[in-house]
Amino acid sequence: MFDKETLAVIFVGLMGLSVLMYAILDGYDLGVGMLLPLDNQQHADIMVASIGPFWDANETWLVLAIGLLLIAFPAAHSLTLKALYLPATFMLIGLILRGVAFDFRAKASFGHRPTWDKLFKLGSLFAALTQGYMLGMYVNGFDTSLSGYLFAMLSAIGVSCAYCFIGATWLVMKTEGELQLKSIKTAKRTLVIAFIGIATVSATNLLFNPDIYAKWFTFPNILFLMPIPIVCGALFALAFMLLKRLQKNPHTGAGFPFLLCILIFTLSFAGLGFSFFPYIVPNQLTIWQAVAAPEALNFLLYGAIVVVPTILMYTAYSYRVFWGKVQELRYY
Amino acid sequence: MLDTLLLSRIQFATNISFHILFPTITIALCWFLLFFKIRFDQTADPIWMRAYRFWVKIFALTFALGVVSGITMSFQFGTNWPGFMEKVGNVAGPLLGYEVLTAFFLEATFLGIMLFGSQRVPQKVHTLATAIVALGTTMSAFWILSLNSWMHTPTGFEMRDGVVIPTDWLAIIFNPSFPYRFFHVLLASAITASFLIAGISAYRLLHGDNKRAPKMTLKVALTAAMILTPVQAFVGDLHGLNTLEHQPQKIAAMEGVWETEKGAPLLLFAIPDEETRSNHFEIGIPNMASLILTHDADGEIKGLNEFVGKHPPVKPVFYSFRVMVGLGMLLLLVAWVTRLTLYKNNELPNWMLKVLVTLSFSGWVATLAGWYVTEIGRQPYIVSGVLTVKEAATDIAPENVAISLALYVIVYLGLLYAYLHTIFVMARRAVEIEEISDQLNEQEQENEEKSILLNSAVTKSTVTNSLDTNLDKKVENDHV
Lengths: 332, 480
What we know:
The complex is a heterodimer of chains A (332) and B (480).
Chain A: H1 4-35, H2 41-51, H3 55-72, H4 74-83, H5 85-107, H6 113-139, H7 146-174, H8 177-208, H9 210-216, H10 219-225, H11 227-248, H12 256-276, E1 279-281, E2 285-286, H13 287-290, H14 294-321
Antiparallel strand pairs in A: 1-2
Helix pairs in contact in A: 1-3, 1-6, 1-7, 1-12, 3-4, 5-6, 6-7, 7-8, 7-12, 8-9, 8-11, 11-12
Chain B: H1 4-43, H2 46-80, H3 82-116, H4 123-152, E1 157-160, E2 163-166, H5 169-173, H6 178-206, H7 212-246, H8 248-255, E3 261-262, E4 266-273, E5 278-285, H9 288-294, E6 300-301, H10 314-345, H11 350-358, H12 362-376, E7 381-383, E8 387-388, H13 389-392, H14 398-432, H15 437-454, H16 460-475
Antiparallel strand pairs in B: 1-2, 3-6, 4-5, 7-8
GO biological process, one term (chain A): aerobic electron transport chain
Family (chain A): Belongs to the cytochrome ubiquinol oxidase subunit 2 family.
InterPro entries (chain A): Cyt-d_oxidase_su2 (IPR003317)
């Protein structure tokens, strides 16, 4: 039996893992959705095929993340989501449209396919924008002044571009020929915007929150924190160079940009997480204030210790089964 | 302007009613798919794989709708019902958590392999993936029904500072109404899926599909329905007895009993009136309700007047119950008549096929009616005796709830239309696909000769399987 203080840390860690997994996994498939071409049926089919076996499980990480927030920090769940009620609703509508359009486009009569493709793209865009917007509102402490909204808009664009970037690198890894070359170009372009986005949001965040500024720029912290943005920047540069090289020879190392992208996401998330810890709702509620009863969390933890590694294992298995370049995706 | 409480209730009812349609199909449909797959592994008859492939597409579509409509629920617990999590979150939370951890990931991950992996993994692994998804859907039902049942019959907790603290998890999970509700819902799912398979198969036959697959699936589905409908009547009765023990006010509303009485009649029809606290236009069978509920013609049934202010609204419970039972009886009758006719004549007359097409989604109606009975029957509580719905409600602005509700209604209606439309489009498309068995025999022979010549160790099933796939590629242009 763990005590309340330890459980709060364990569960915020588990939740952080889920959010990160979600951002990476659903990030790339939302990105692919946003990049879907409406004028090239063949490319659209391959792109959708590349995420076909995965999107369902990817989205489940969101359910886990929101579920853990609800279970472990119920007060934070209702405080956060009540403040973000409408954007959360819009995000859900986006995710609904994206998810079902995926299935309908393959099964509806062919005449309706362009409509479902549009809904797929629109749903993905909607979900990404609202997620970014909610992140922005959360980070600025639900600031409803003009500057608060502007910051949230900026965050919406930043997150969407980051998703497009990881989606494009996913396609660089999973596709061949013309589509791969096209994706390399898209990846380069979105990389630049994503970099500017992340840098701006991080800088603005520091200016907005003097506490966080102090946290980052005091003595022992600065030593192990400064590497985060520096390494992140270096990874962006490395990814850019790799993409340039891939334009000439797309056959070797096509998976590296995606890998770098995962690292960038992880580092950015770690930086964000450190900035706010131990707050679960910035400047309002700490994890220890919001945590649920140990009787409940211990019971869930026993299961989670066994189940979470199992989930990671069979997720890896599923990626191994569908390893390599996308083939025509069919229901067998 | 409607208030936030009412809007939240309408929104939650809309969301959960829309959501439950899809799991109701997928929970059992996946076990049907596993049956098709195992039969294919055993017999190597391509017809089973053909059935699998047609129904796995419908499964995928239904599953996707279930997933996306389910996500909205996990948000609404916090946004619209914060009081629920504040008061009983320590019980509800872990049960929901276990559902996500042990069911959702399992289903979602292996679904990918089940749908797209049969050429990438050995057949045995593919069958296993189907079994895992079936297990996952059932696990999901297990946890959510455990929580739902706990809300009806809460046990295994104590109150500390006005908050529910779990003391005995086994007592919580296996609370008194859980086993009954779990099997009642699983059977409802099985019957819903049976009539869906039967209805769509009948639709294909009516549209001139003379292949073996729809005949075979019709037979399987009606056999299942014939066995399961009487079992459901029996389990439903047990569930009713359990409800009488723990929630007598719900039974009183279901039966329209106002005053406690001995030898209560079974009301076939009535118009309950909460103003006068009596029924109008009663048509009933004397002593029957007492007989069914207490197994004694003069048994006592507690009336609603013993629970004034603490019993559910009578009309919706009373009517929903009659819709559920009436429809259940109809399905039982139809299942037996059609299955016996099929046994005798080896085919069904057109009118029977038409009846089955009409009943394709009848399981939905019965299931929803059943849910309304049990859920409205718990009112005014959200957790029996612990927390009322009103106490759990949110304080967000009604305008916001109105906007989200309107959006959900529009999107859900559109999706429901698209879903039904697409299923029939898929059925019609399946009619046009050529029969595979004749061509297959030719190629099969050819291949068998080849394998004899090459003296290869290729088993018959893998040969037929790959052949079947090749043929499929020719006749069916159905990329994702």
